[in-house]
From TrEMBL:
<dbReference type="InterPro" id="IPR010067">
    <property type="entry name" value="ABC_SsuA_sub-bd"/>
</dbReference>
<keyword id="KW-1003">Cell membrane</keyword>
<keyword id="KW-0732">Signal</keyword>
<keyword id="KW-0813">Transport</keyword>
<comment type="similarity">
    <text>Belongs to the bacterial solute-binding protein SsuA/TauA family.</text>
</comment>
<dbReference type="Pfam" id="PF13379">
    <property type="entry name" value="NMT1_2"/>
</dbReference>
<feature type="signal peptide">
    <location>
        <begin position="1"/>
        <end position="31"/>
    </location>
</feature>
<keyword id="KW-0997">Cell inner membrane</keyword>
<protein>
    <submittedName>
        <fullName>Aliphatic sulfonate ABC transporter substrate-binding protein</fullName>
    </submittedName>
</protein>
<dbReference type="InterPro" id="IPR044527">
    <property type="entry name" value="NrtA/CpmA_ABC-bd_dom"/>
</dbReference>
<keyword id="KW-0472">Membrane</keyword>
């Protein structure tokens, strides 16, 4: 592989996403970019504690691609499995901050995208996290201003937003632009196509004001942009075999997995039950996500029915982590210039998930050669 140009900014960000902070007490108080630990789960802790734990600290995003924990916030399948051990949720805005919290022990288990999971695993030399299950596939689109961009050939000279430098959508956009022959500096986002990194919640306003010409974003941001007059130029599903690719995984701190396997198994049982319920009750599940979004501790802003239904339709919940697609996403990070070739051997530990699936009479899922021995 030819020597790449300096990537100090990206490397610092990726390292920060996985480094264990020294000021754990001070940083823990502000929740690592989250809205701090939240309450609001509709089902209360009740019964014997699992593994003697008072709580399991769980991180996730307040968006539709994290439908499993967002629905469970209302339905409480995970809480029921944990009994008297409380689910203590933390809401994050982006993957790197969630990985930072996981590394510091502020959270124990998290729903998170593949790129932050890869970065966290690589930067900790495989010693901090494991991917223990899947959660969602799809739900990502490139939405553009149709007056300025009619096709991919019109991207030159335009400005496209992603949620954060080095996050899953940022990597996907950079890889796509690379494959189409556009030159873009991965650190600065400057090049033949400009890339603006901005928080998901800010992108619709920037798009509305003309600050960007499009955005590569997850749901519900993609559907919000369409509601603002944008057009879906590309649904990322079109780029993947069978239209499936991992957008959300479940990760755990390795120490927590080692010390509290019963609690981890309980969370996985609850996650599998939640996904089954979502598949059987899609309309109610969409409303459950909206109820969670309406919670001031999550975002305080529910979605319109039009945006909600569009967003929910574009996301598929799954227990399968779709490990082969994670391999490809790691390759995309290398191609885009944000990551050196990573060693992902052992990033998955699917033994507890497969135990849960076996008890349900379902076949096991695979780790594409990247599983724990």
């Amino acid at each position: 592989m030819p020597a790449a140009r300096p990537r100090s900014t990206a490397r610092r960000l990726l390292a920060a996403a996985a480094a264990v902070p020294l000021l754990i007490g001070a940083l823990g108080a502000c929740g690592y970019g989250s809205k701090a630990p939240t309450t609001g789960n509709k089902v209360a802790a009740k019964g014997p504690k699992t593994d003697g734990l008072d709580a399991v600290k769980v991180g996730y995003f307040g968006n539709v691609t994290h439908a499993t924990p967002m629905v469970d916030r209302q339905k409480g399948f995970i809480q029921k499995e944990l009994g008297g051990t409380q689910v203590k949720p933390y809401i994050f805005n982006a993957g790197p901050s969630e990985i930072e919290a996981l590394n510091a022990g502020t959270i124990d288990i998290g729903w998170i995208g593949p790129s932050p999971a890869i970065n966290g695993y690589v930067q900790s030399h495989g010693k901090n996290l494991k991917i223990i299950g899947g959660s969602a596939s799809g739900g990502v689109s490139l939405v553009v201003n149709p007056k300025k961009i009619k096709s991919e050939k019109d991207l030159k000279g335009k400005r496209i937003a992603t949620p954060q430098l080095g996050n899953t959508q940022d990597v996907a956009l950079l890889n796509y632009l690379h494959e189409k022959g556009y030159q873009v500096d991965p650190d600065t986002g400057k090049g033949e196509v400009g890339v603006l990194r901005q928080d998901n919640k800010e992108i619709p306003n920037t798009f509305r004001q003309g600050g960007v010409d499009g955005a590569w974003v997850p749901e519900p941001t993609a559907s919000k942009l369409v509601a603002e007059g944008g057009r879906t130029l590309l649904d990322e599903k079109q780029l993947w075999k069978d239209g499936k690719f991992v957008i959300t995984n479940i990760v755990v701190r390795q120490q927590f997995l080692k010390e509290h396997p019963k609690a981890v198994e309980a969370v996985l049982r609850g996650s599998v039950q939640t996904n089954d319920w979502i598949k059987g009750h899609p309309g109610e599940a969409a409303q459950a996500v909206n109820a969670s979004l309406a919670d001031p501790k999550v975002s305080g802003t529910p979605l319109s029915d039009k945006v909600l239904n569009s967003a929910f339709r574009n996301v598929e919940v799954t227990d399968d982590p779709l490990a082969a697609t994670l391999k490809d996403e790691a390759r995309h990070a290398v191609t885009s210039g944000l990551l050196k070739k990573p060693d992902l051997h052992g990033i998955y530990d699917l033994r507890l998930l497969n135990k849960v699936l076996k008890a349900e009479g379902r076949p096991p899922v695979g780790a594409a050669g990247l599983g724990a021995q």
